[in-house]
Amino acid sequence: MMSKNKGVLIVISGPSGAGKGTICKKLIEKNKNIYLSVSATTRSPREGEIDGVNYYFLTKEEFERKVKENGFIEYAEVHGNFYGTPRVNVNKMLEEGKDVILEIDIQGALQVKENFKEGVFIFILPPSMEELKRRIIKRGSETEESLMTRFKNAYKEINYVSKYNYAVVNDTLELAVSKVEAIIAAEKCRVDRIKDNTILESKEGLIHEQLYD
Ligand code: 5GP
């Protein structure tokens, strides 16, 4: 019997200003089977951000309650605020064969790696540190202090690229998005992910013929 392949869990990290948010947005616009998990955070909404769309904005008490209830797949303190991936939905979507993106920091990604061995871990790199600085300043949504914190963290974070499966330099948006799409496409072809027995069993004779005749 044909059983559905599980969706791919894609974890995307990278320093602020590397452009991971824009890449993720473009990916979900272009690919209807890819879902972006909405995180919870204790940070205040930025202008234009909507509760339940960009983040679930929680108080520290609400966040702590959810931690106690084991409501997060992972959570971490980033730049002085808490962020976490709600457990509900992620498992369900993967079971339904939908691909799920988590755009989370390195501490969170390392926690996910412990529990989702089959996850695909992608690190987004800026073309250069100079360009990264320019992008963070251009964004303009940060106070001077948080800008410095983000920049210092970016230097440290880049060392963690080796913990990931793939590194994508975000030189131009289109190219970076197509590289991530290629990674996802390749991962879906991995034999250890294919559950659809019709490919591996009923075609056995055919594959055998092609390989050995
Ligand atoms: P921002 O405040 O700019 O939206 O996000 C700051 C950082 O928090 C980014 O590096 C982002 O990837 C990370 N982040 C967002 N959501 C989560 C989450 O659910 N878990 C973790 N660990 N990090 C998150």
Automatic annotation (TrEMBL):
Family: Belongs to the guanylate kinase family.
Record lineage: Bacteria, Bacillati, Bacillota, Clostridia, Eubacteriales
Role description: Essential for recycling GMP and indirectly, cGMP.
Descriptive protein name: Guanylate kinase
Annotated SMART domains: GuKc
One Pfam entry name: Guanylate_kin
Cytoplasm as UniProt keyword: yes
Protein residues bound to ATP: 14-21
InterPro entries, A to Z: GK/Ca_channel_bsu, Guanylate_kin-like_dom, Guanylate_kinase, Guanylate_kinase_CS, P-loop_NTPase
Keywords: ATP-binding, Cytoplasm, Kinase, Nucleotide-binding, Transferase
EC top class, as a word: transferase
Cellular component, GO annotation: cytosol
Molecular-function GO terms, alphabetical: ATP binding; GMP kinase activity
Subcellular location: Cytoplasm
Predominant subcellular localization, coarse grouping: cytoplasm
Limits of the Guanylate kinase-like domain: 7-185
CDD domains to which the protein is assigned, alphabetical: GMPK
Species: Clostridium isatidis
Keyword Phosphoprotein attributed: no
Coiled-coil ranges from the UniProt annotation: none
Superkingdom per UniProt: Bacteria
Enzyme Commission number: 2.7.4.8
Enzymatic reactions: GMP + ATP = GDP + ADP
